[in-house]
């Protein structure tokens, strides 16, 4: 945002600078037409009257104010007396002073400087079209010299159904009256010229900040005015030229103005590029703020989710550590107990039985450690699948033969049924582990003399393999837990089943690596566990 603001500010500064340079043409609008009266030229003869000069200066000020450039100009005669100046001014038509030019008659115009007479609040109240107290006309009583009116009383009047109402009046004291002409003028407020830029046809309110900036224009003009008085040459001054503020002032001579020689004009302007750029960038700032809020919300959501995930991982780690400790403690206790019995020659006739138990428990520990190593690789995503073409039915038949002794011992019937092509492109070791764990889980939970059905079904490019065993259903509240490490739903099972509780967890990770779908559900006769995945690459 800083870069965008700086770039926009530089663009605004260049544009405002080009606009402000137009003010250098101001003196040329004040020159008298030396070739005589030209009715089509507003700056000849009648155009060079003091009120018209006053209006020209204020027009320039208003032109610049549309670009938020604060401008002030003052025209002096050779005796350092102010002829005209920018600011609050009301221009009146003198009904008794008519200028004739050819077939045209023009009223001579007179002006009064209100900037020195009224406060900011008074200007805003009586001259704003948006104010309920706004005046329709202004009446001025006072004295006039060759350049302007010096009022002794100003009345602000509103009109309603041919009735006049004085809404406010203000009196002033004129010190030097000698040589001045008493006057009484009435004028519509629409003939006023003010220093604020217009907004929707109305004068925008004058603020203290605006007034101080206009006064700053006068202050930066003073050094050039002092320089001109000393040297009689055009003087230029610039105090600030940055992205925050830019000012410029000039004092120069105006020749042959309305029959007056050696007049001089001093003017200054100031503008604030960064301030103007920030106004133009409000939509950008709003969008950026909205973007930052959305970004903060998204990051907060991700952070909260990460925090909960870390809590879940920590909880799982503690549960896993406890489960591993429990699983290892039991066989180690059995091994130690039977080893001590052999050492003490207790029941020597059962020596072979003790040794076999020790061997079985040792094998069980070894099997559990191997599965834990495989699970660790899967959880760390360190296992790389190596897909190859394989027959799912052939694999299931081999695994069923491997579990033949266990199923024969429990008189369990294992059947394999296939519909469609059973060719599958997958990692052989992973698929063998999945099917083996499914069948192992089924054998352990199938009661004596019941059956297990392995079904392989193909639908287009999707192959589904299910292992369904007869027996007790899984409680609903335990259904989602069977994929967790060391979960054993049947607490009454003995240790003779060699269960580690991580077989289905390993199967779950292998299926996730292949992007397979899997689930477990209760059936009318028992439990079915299944997976489905794409057959092709």
What would you say this structure looks like, in words?
By secondary structure, the protein is an alpha+beta fold. The protein has 3 domains: 2-274, no CATH class; 281-382, Signal transduction histidine kinase, dimerisation/phosphotransfer (DHp) domain (Helix Hairpins), CATH 1.10.287.130; 383-537, 2-Layer Sandwich (Heat Shock Protein 90), CATH 3.30.565. Helix content is 40%, strand content 28%. It has 12 helices and 21 strands. It has helices at residues 2-21, 50-65, 120-127, 208-231, 273-280, 282-343, 351-379, 392-402, 404-409, 428-445, 476-479, 503-513; strands at residues 70-76, 82-85, 89-101, 104-113, 137-144, 149-160, 163-171, 181-188, 192-193, 198-199, 202-203, 235-237, 246-254, 263-271, 387-391, 413-419, 423-427, 451-459, 462-470, 517-522, 526-534. The strands form 6 sheets. It has a 5-stranded antiparallel sheet, sandwiched between helices. α6 packs antiparallel against α7 (351-379), α7 (351-379) runs parallel beside α12 and α8 crosses α10.
Helix content: 40-55%
Contiguous uncertain segments of 5+ residues = 31-48, 196-202, 491-496
Adjacency order of strands in the biggest sheet: 2-1-14-13-12
Strand content: 25-35%
**Average of per-residue pLDDT values:** 76
Give short descriptive properties of this protein.
alpha+beta; Heat Shock Protein 90; 5-stranded antiparallel sheet; 5-stranded mixed sheet; 12 helices; 21 strands
What's a quick, concise take on this entry?
With 537 residues, the chain is of the alpha+beta class. The chain has twelve helices and 21 strands.
